[in-house]
Amino acid sequence: MTKHQLRCIDCATPHEPSIADLNCHHCGGLFSVEYLELPSSNKPRLPITDISLINSLGEGETPLICLEDTCEELGLESLWAKLEFMSPTGSFKDRGSAILTTMGRDLGVTEFVEDSSGNAGASLSAYAASAGLKANVFTPSNAATGKLDQIQIYGATLHKIAGSRQAATDAAEQYVADNNSIYMSHNLSPYFSEGMKAVSFEVVAFLDDAIDHVVLPVGNGSLLLGMVRGYQELFDSGVISRIPSFHGVQAFSVRPVVAALNGEAWTHHDARPTGASGIAVSKPPRLSEILDAIRCTNGTGVTVSEDSLLTWQSRLASSEGIFAERTSVGAFAGLEKLIESGVIASGSKVCVPITGTGLKEPLET
Ligand SMILES: Cc1ncc(COP(=O)(O)O)c(C=O)c1O
Ligand SMILES: [Zn+2]
Questions:
Q1: Could you tell me the CATH number of the domain that includes residue 221?
Q2: Closest to 123 measured CA to CA, from 360, 328, 329
């Protein structure tokens, strides 16, 4: 675990690797992982030295398939879907949980606190069970029943908090302060999103640098930030000669990233309920990193309506045989808008990670 250090994203002060410390001792900023070795061409750099000792449930290497009907309907040259919902607990979060729980285990954690809209909580609970760690997971009380069931069956203690997604975060932070617990927040810790770099490596191993655009849902930005860093490593090691444009999709009801990109005055007070629970994040702590990542790839942000989530959920299921959760199908609603507005030209090659299974949440009609 000596191949990296942490660096404050605000004041650039270096810090020792840590799970318990989430903020810079000087300015309170969050950390990024900085490697003390060069990028390699065939695998992402990870903070874990011995990959054979990773706390794994078989995550990663998800299928990459062509969505031919949707591709033709949208007028694209190719449309690739990375089936992240085929992960051990049904969402892409498993990639991050494997890294975060391994780091926790190796740094001596035995019990931790986490807050989540449901998928990350379910995922971390499973990986905690496998690593022998005790998890306390805070979720909104209206989180999908399948996600709440997962958290409990994996043996975590579930704290259901009335109110918004932010209320669950606030309750988790209060619990940590009251109990002097370790807050292994997947959003604040820099380790979780390191697991997402492999998505880019897997796409490139299959398609080289053919992809023009990646369209994906953005809440706290772990998938976006990890995938962009993965592409950056591949670029730096000379494997690819260009990086696709990354377009972040948010529900119109909760749009801090899109608003910031477009210079719109929007605050968390403007947030409204949305069926896209995984991206109902009104105050993403890594907002400035998210904006930088999108801008440096010449990407954009786009909002989608609640109706379009339902339309695309049934469209994907009935035309492609893919049952994804409403948060995930937002990427397709966003893609359609980006094509209509000319941001994504017809004839482009596009990749969409399908982040979570539809099996966990009741259908809304
Ligand atoms: C299914 C699904 N997709 C996308 C996201 C957004 O991920 P991130 O918060 O890393 O941007 C989430 C987050 O909970 C999710 O559950
Ligand atoms: Zn700092």
A1: 3.40.50.1100
A2: 360
